[in-house]
Amino acid sequence: MLEPPGHLPRIPKQFSEEHARMKKVLAFILALAMCAVFSVGCTKIAKDDPAQMGAEFEIYMGTKVMDLDPAIAYTDENAVKILSLIFEGLTRLDENGKLKKALAKDWEIVEDSRTGEQRLEIVINDTYWSDGSLVQANDIVYAWKRILDPSFESPAASMLYCIKGAEDAKLGLISIDDIGLYSKSTTKLVVEFEEGADIDEFLYNTASPALVPLRENKVASYPDTWSKTATDLSTNGPFRVRKFSSEPSEEIVLERSRYYYLNQEVQTEAIDKYVTPYRITIRYDIPLDLSLVYSTAETDVLTMFGNRELFYVSGLTAATAAKYGNDVETEKEASTFVYYFNLNSIENAELFQNAAVRQALSMALDRNYIAQLVGCDTEAATGLINDKVFNTSRGTSFREEGGDIISAAGDIEGARQLLEENDIWPEDYEDIYIVVRQDEMNDSYQSQLMGYVSKEKAIAQYTETIWEQLGFSVVINSLPAAEYDEAFATGDYDVIGLDYQMLSVYALYSLTPFTRDYNGGVRMVTSSDPDYDASRGETMYYTYDEHRTGYYNPEYDALIAAAFAESDDRQRAEILHEAEELLLSDAVVVPILFNTNTYVVSSELSKLSTNYWGYQIFTKAQLKDYVQYLPSVRNASSDEDEE
After folding, report:
1. What is the pLDDT of residues 398-440, one digit of tens each?
2. What distance in Å separates the CA atoms of residue 153 and residue 490, rounded to the nearest whole number?
3. CA distance 11 to 449
4. How far, in Å, CA of 615 to CA of 252, rounded?
5. What is the structure's pLDDT at 25?
6. Span 161-201, pLDDT tens digits
């Protein structure tokens, strides 16, 4: 029988079924082939890489950080450089300050139709901790509740006070488990807010390096060591910490996390899909420049960079940066180098409790001269808050709007006159001890004779000279990192120099730590304490604690409270400018320099990016012809040369 015109011939049923089966088989084979092509085609791993893992390279990043707890590690600018590589928060800020999704996959603001209250529901991406465990919404909940726990002190606490019940929980008035923060599922986080909370501002704050998730089992099981050794540290960022110890000169080794966003069930993705380099070793055992630094080392950072043994160098000073010529780059950091005056000093409490003394000591310092001394495009600090902080929104500058609060030029005669007017005679007081962090590899008496002084020590030596001209006796106490951290934590100092990190792009959260009510610290009061209030009817209770310097000004606290309550952005900014002026007039914190990240990158290393905080991101870094620099290949070449 002939088929009608325009119709295809009928195919027997058995052939039709066979054809369908063949199509399925071919489709499956094609899918596998496409997966293979995708996996191999997107990789940057060279075919002649013996281990097929990717580039390994060494870098130098200044002094070693001894604690990587993201909730508290903010007295050294180098801490954020590393934290940005090993942890990932819900959001991030690009180099222009624009908010981007990171761990957060999506979010939605939901309004309760009955109460009108708003809550934020955040869905997180599927990714894993460096130990292979799934990153869950509960990891965010745990990290934030830890900051809000009455027993834990963190300057990040005020960024979470917009959460319903958070401030009451900090004071122990309600259980930490009763606040408006919980996980709805392994991937969904729910945040309920206090009335009037700015949810957009809160989302920006989730980009803070202090608000990243943490592994509860690690922190709880190893409370004293989890952030200080590679063994106990779990990270959720692009790199895991392979090697890290309390030895000051021992390197920190970062390795690509094989669990970072890679599908763990169907392993068809290239292992370097999200993180290009395999291993980054941060060296701390080599001096910067043997022509300027006294050391028994056989080589230095300058030589190793020239020999393509180091591919990135930061932490440069004016003297060492000059050797790299026009290759040196600088980025403004979101930190300010400051001095804290200790009002509870064991030997000099009376001296530092006098505001006129603090004002005179600050007034005498020539910040323009200090900026020239340190070099590297650092700027004299004319306020505490720097250019990275918004005035009202992205694109506005709190510093530019507020102008200069303190003079960049020193006035030693004015300082001397202020002391005399207040009957302060420097010879009547004990030595003033200035505590600074020691650059253990480079700082020494011999190095100073050769021409090298670290930033912290250079500023301290200048300060010593100026304050002694006022008649004070000054001693510089340069401490190794671990001892410095201990002195800072216990208040064992008269004056201490530190990098004050902006934890948010909003000025409020960099000014709250100097209050009593919002600084993130509370203390237990018992019936034996002199300030115990029996009328409360409790044998013990929590109360707000003063700033670690001993500073407390009710007027300043009232301004910060007013800023928290103000919903109009411009009105709030005006209040905060007034608060900053009052804080710097009280002069318990003395801004010295606006920090910069000064660095040099090898021409062989590319695809580095910069985050808003001013630090380099190595996630997509590519080392040209990297195989020749692999340790195994280099060692083999060295053995051949010896033969």
Report:
1. 999 999 999 999 999 999 999 999 999 999 999 999 999 999 8
2. 13
3. 95
4. 17
5. 47
6. 999 999 999 999 999 999 999 999 999 999 999 999 999 99
Three-state DSSP state, 378: coil
Q: Under 8 Å CB-to-CB from 486, ≥6 apart: which residues?
A: 492
Q: Are 252 and 60 in contact (CB under 8 A)?
A: no
DSSP letters of 54-82?
A: --EEEEEESSPPS---TTT--SSHHHHHH
Burial grade of 467 (CB within 10 A; 0-12, 13-18, 19 or more): buried
- The Cα diameter of the chain in Å comes to 123
Strands in 115-169 per DSSP E: 118-124
Give the separation between CA 513 and CA 158, rounded to whole angstroms: 8
Q: What is the pLDDT of residue 263?
A: 87
> How would CATH label the architecture of 89-126+136-212?
Alpha-Beta Complex (3.90)
Measured distance CA(359)–CA(341) in Å, rounded: 11
Q: Which residues contact 506 (CB under 8 A, 6 or more apart)?
A: 201, 204, 205, 389, 390
| Residue 244 and residue 230 in contact, taking contact as beta carbons nearer than 8 Å | yes
The pLDDT value recorded for residue 449 is 87
Provide the pLDDT for residue 20.
Answer: 52
Look at residue 190 and give its three-state secondary structure.
strand
Closest CA to 591 of 390, 381, 422: 381
Q: Do residues 255 and 237 make contact, with C-beta atoms less than 8 angstroms apart?
A: no
DSSP E strands: which ranges in 33-164? 56-61, 91-93, 99-101, 104-111, 118-124
- For 30, other C-beta atoms within 10 Å of its C-beta total 10
Q: Are 366 and 544 in contact (CB under 8 A)?
A: no
Strand ranges, E, within 275-381: 279-283, 312-314, 329-341, 379-380
**Against a cut of 0.70, is the pTM above it?**
yes
The alpha carbon of residue 231 and the mean position of all alpha carbons in its chain are separated, in whole angstroms, by 21
Phi, psi of 19 (to 5 degrees): -60, -40
Structure tokens at 285: 């055992």
Domain residue spans of the chain: 89-126+136-212
Cα atoms found within 13 Å of the Cα of residue 550, Cβ hemisphere only: 19
Beta strand pairing call for 56-61 and 279-283: parallel
Report the share of the chain in percent with pLDDT over 70. Answer: 92
* Whole-number pLDDT of residue 18: 56
What does the alpha-carbon distance between residue 154 and residue 144 come to, in Å, rounded to a whole number?
11
